[in-house]
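Quick one:
INPUT:
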């Protein structure tokens, strides 16, 4: 277990844990992708299906694993540009498969028509969530107001939540499209705070993206839990309020 509030947490963890439990939160804000909904697993299943559906192996230039790895690399960088406001939604959707497949050796005219649309239709219907997601949400729901705050696209995020049966746990679902701002812009957090009518001190943000979720919440005055399931070593400054590697740890924190 690795939740902490200070760099010297190994010396003061019992006291800090007690202090945490004495602090009262009323609302928990969750990111969706990579935090509750297992984007990587669901995306991998989708891409393997598309590899077969569009006969990408017939080109003889890459296998399914290479296709998945290249797409993951390209998509991650395009989402980073989108989160920073450097590209629009349409450009992200239209270019990721072109960049992926031309990067693997296809000519632009060889990129199959409709592959982007097929991905958008299929991927959100996948149902994988992170371990202990449902157990933790069952535990939290009677105790806190639960809300989603996501930069994902509105129609896609609602399909993901419906397909994976996450909708019943959450009161408010705020997307960047519906409020006009994207994390880490503090105005997106303030939009949600206004909808639920609470001060930032009453909320705790849980997310996997340091810049969008952790730094953004901090800028809005909200405490944060950095979800780091890969236990990736990092030296973030300032540190997140807390850090966990498994959602089950939330039951010990809250």
């Amino acid at each position: 277990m690795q939740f902490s509030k200070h760099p010297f947490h190994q010396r003061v963890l019992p006291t800090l844990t007690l202090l945490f439990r004495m602090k009262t939160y009323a609302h928990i804000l969750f990111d969706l992708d990579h935090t509750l909904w297992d984007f990587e697993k669901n995306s991998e299943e989708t891409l393997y299906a598309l590899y077969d559906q569009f006969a990408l192996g017939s080109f003889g230039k890459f296998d399914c694993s290479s296709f998945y790895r290249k797409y993951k690399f390209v998509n991650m960088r395009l989402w980073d540009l989108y989160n920073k406001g450097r590209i629009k939604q349409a450009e992200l959707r239209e270019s990721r498969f072109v960049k992926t497949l031309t990067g693997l050796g296809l000519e632009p005219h060889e990129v199959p028509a409709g592959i982007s649309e097929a991905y958008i239709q299929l991927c959100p219907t996948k149902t994988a969530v992170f371990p202990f997601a449902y157990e933790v949400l069952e535990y939290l729901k009677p105790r806190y107001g639960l809300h989603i705050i996501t930069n994902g696209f509105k129609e896609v995020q609602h399909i993901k939540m419906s397909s994976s049966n996450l909708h019943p746990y959450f009161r408010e679902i705020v997307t960047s499209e519906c409020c006009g701002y994207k994390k880490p812009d503090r105005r997106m957090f303030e939009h949600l705070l206004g909808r639920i009518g609470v001060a930032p001190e009453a909320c705790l943000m849980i997310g996997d993206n340091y810049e969008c979720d952790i730094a953004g919440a901090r800028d809005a005055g909200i405490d944060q839990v950095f979800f780091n399931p890969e236990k990736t070593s990092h030296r973030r400054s300032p540190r997140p309020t807390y850090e966990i590697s498994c959602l089950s740890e939330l039951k010990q924190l809250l």
